[in-house]
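Researcher: Please predict.
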Amino acid sequence: ASAPLRDGEISRWRVKSATRLLPTHLSSPPLFSSHTHTLEENNPTSNPRETWSSRTAFLFASIGAAVGAFFVPYLFALFVVGIPLLLLEIAMGQFHQSGDVGVFGSIHTKLRGVGLASIMCGFFVTVYYVPLISWVVRGFVESFTGEMRSEWDDISGSEAVAYFYDEVIGMSTLGEDNKPTRIVFVNVIYLGLTWAIIGSCVAFGIKWTGRIAYITMGLPIVLLLVFLARAVTLPGASEGIQAYIGTWDMNILFDRPDVWSTAVSQIFFSLGVTFGVMTAFGSHCPRKSPAVENSIIIAVSNSAFSLISGFAVFGSLGYLKYYEGADSLDDVVKSGPSLLFGAYPSVLSTLPGGIYWVRLLFLNLFLLGIDSAFALTEAVLTVVKDTVIGRRVTNKQIVFGTTSLGFLCGIVYMTDAGLIFLDTVDFYVNFIMILIGFSKSFSAGWIYGMEEQIKVLGAKPVYAYIITTFGSIMVASLAWFGIRGDTTLWGFVVFGMTYGSGIYYIYRLLQEKMMEEPEKNWTMESLRYELTLRNVDNLKDTLADFVGPIPAIWAVLIKHVIPPVLLILFFNLAHAQTNELESEFGNYNGYATWPYQIIGVAVVFLACAVVLLGVFKPQLYECLSFDAEEGEHTITYVDAERGTTYKLEPDVVNETKAVVKEEEGSGYVKLEDEKGTASKPAAATTTAPSDKTIESSGYVELKDQKAGTTTSDEQVETNDYVEIPEKGRDVSPESSDEFVKIPKNIP
């Protein structure tokens, strides 16, 4: 399975999805504690976010982005990892009305890199995915005009594969080293045509994309049912279906542990998570949309489509075995491109009117592929549009820039070695997806609310718990994957010893906390909850106030299951070896070091560098966050006691973007304009004219009714202030005297 390319055949290819065709010391200052964010509403008063034309359009577009592989082999990956992450992305995008960079930047400014890396991962996939679609487009066109028009009837699988590899992709000119020798210019034209179609469909906004999804997702469903009905009625179909669902080789789960990592990356591809797609799609949904229900519909639809696709494909392959008189399915089918471009078209060509069945196949693949391309492109567009620069240009200009960049980057796949480049980058993208999945779940489950945890418990228990959890996994993974031989038992022993030691240390710290603060009536149970679940439960409850009820198990999975599992699976994938017992990382499929392995490894390290730059140099990504300008401001109300933040709805304020800080005993609330310029008060209950511009050095002071004059810096004259009575409408989800309150008569 790891032999080099020979005779125009890609020897290893994981079928990704049907829509994708194939494819510190503890006492030191805490790294994430100084500016940890809680969830804030982020909805500018002007330039409102475009929404889907209907909920159905959102679901069709999302299913088109997610509809999955011919078979979902591991329910563990789907239910334990995939669906919770899908819900995280949709709910966070929906709550913040923002793309991945804005969403994870709202948790902490140091986490913008996580969102950016996710978008980069999706862009890497798009850049090699669109060339794959362009090959399908060429095959479809040449079924009408090319030399194969009259030769599709009763064509063999090997002939079909040879046609696609040698003629369509242009691999016939490759030498023994499989390095590129030329650009296939006709494919460059088809690449440009495909990008032009994608750009035309997304240039008019998300409403039009949703409407187009009715066709690009709806028609393939009809065509799939047609293929299924035809396949299961063919002679020999039952044998193929038996091979699909009746043969279970459980030994592979132990003999090839890397299949678990591959299964997770398969689910990520299938559901469209870790690419920024579902965050972008969720951001265009109304904030009260039922995120849990939508996530389940998308996931179930994906699985159903996958299952049905498997019946259609394997039923057809059973017929091909019968038709050719082969001894087994292995004699008539190979995985990957040979299945897509060889065996399946070969089956269809044997049917009456075979050329028309082949054309329907190409049309089906094009529609499914283009729908996923819309989704991957929309993730990039959403992040760009959420920046200051993005809001100064039109959607069409952003689309033109994105598609042009995608076209230029995709030319490398238009060489005669394009399929090898594609196969290589596709393999290394698996590492990025698992790392991003870990980073997203770690951000939501561990970084969110960390500052409040440190205030309550102190830094030592919080950081000790993180180090204990993930340090023990790393040590155990070293035993499992870094030492030759059967070290499974030793790995668990090492894990138990390191984790147990860390938990004992944390237990002692919590006991000290109870003795130091007897007035708070701490119990060990309450302290354990504060340490292990409080922060992620707060995240769940905050999201649920807007996106609907979220099951309690989701919080447990996001914090205590998904990050450790993905970390183990990353080490597992990195440990995968070739038949020559070399690490596949850097030696994938026996391809040459340059250019293939170097490009693949560079893709992984680039994604890691983007995340780390965000952690250590967060200011580099400030340009990617929306810095509201005059007329696009909201007001953030901070509850200093609870460490939570809320914002007024956009119709409450007009032109002030400022943070309201309630200073204890000061008798007034101060609004600090983040841009450091004078602000205009909103039209509210005020003793000053509503159009009065208050000249200040960077903030406007709002005083309560008890403070008749200014008390600080003489920023404003007496009575030029907005009144905030002590009793009025809560801006918080729950009633509390500790919150700043706003009168009901504010416009």
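Model: The two ends are 68 Å apart (CA to CA).
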